[in-house]
Amino acid sequence: MLISYMLNIGQLMSIPIISDRFKDLVSMHDSCRERFITQQKVVGLHEQEIYMAGLADMREQYLVERKGPSMHTLLFTLQGQGLLVTCNGSQLLTANSLAVLPAGKPFRFFIGDDVNHWQMAWLLLDVKRLWLGSQLNEQKVVASEYAESVWALLSLMIASHCNPLKQSLWLSELVTNLESALLLGAGQNTAQQRVKSAFEQVSLQLHQNWTVKDIASLSCLSEAHLNRVSTRLFERSAYQHLIYLRIEKAQELLRYSQWSLAIIATHLGYSDAYSFSKSFNQAVGCSPKVYRLRNAG
After folding, report:
1. Does residue 225 or residue 253 have the better pLDDT?
2. Residue closest to 106 by CA, chosen among 70, 53, 58
3. Angstrom distance (rounded) from CA 136 to CA 182
4. Burial class (CB in 10 A: 0-12, 13-18, 19+), 11
5. pLDDT digits (tens, 9 = 90+) for 7-62
6. Three-state DSSP class for 83?
7. Are the CB atoms for 108 and 64 separated by under 8 Å?
8. Quick count: other Cβ atoms within 10 Å of Cβ 276?
9. Which residue from 28, 51, 128, 283 lies 20 to 30 Å from 102 (Cα-Cα)?
């Protein structure tokens, strides 16, 4: 099916952009491909108040238009190019960009006449999603280094549809990436952003022998400043948050894997099972073996 309502760039610039010009419309060429991620496929989406997400590989002709959307929309462009029209004008959506489209404000996006490919990831977010705060008050397009990682995480969630543990891990990473992308786009506290990014790296390499000095170096901050920012962000010092990340991962592995305590200890950066068990008991209030028995099945 060919697109039924398409404008070229010249037409776009000459049309008065007012609210009553917008419609509720979706139309695309047969060559377009799209994969959907719904709350039925990923249970955790509901808890994170993400209504739906998708991966779109659009070619030839493609258009989406909303007059008064009830959800917030995020568009991460990976490759190619799209065009966005709002009441304030028009903007190109190029590779490594993020379009923020708040609920209640009309928009139109499509592929221009001189471009025949647009690859992007999109998400529909519930208006009650509090962690976004004021970042969704205005329509805007910002450069974003997170387009590729958002695409990759959504792809992993689709691929791991039979593995709830993996889906939960990818979803957690996705939410962190969304927070970071929106904060970075808003030009918010760069020290907080660096600390978040540092701990993201730490969480992916918990087997390493991390020290507070290492994390401070990753954050480009002094150890004292790192601890202040960490306390502000997580209500824990940097060292306490490192322990928190390890214990959180340990709980997941104890619930969903059959790994021995020695293997889990190595995976999480502990020298042996005894050190791991001691740290786990201090944090959780019971031994890893008891925790596994309590949460079996």
Report:
1. 253
2. 70
3. 9
4. exposed
5. 333 333 333 344 458 888 888 888 888 899 998 888 788 888 899 999 989 888 88
6. strand
7. yes
8. 23
9. 28
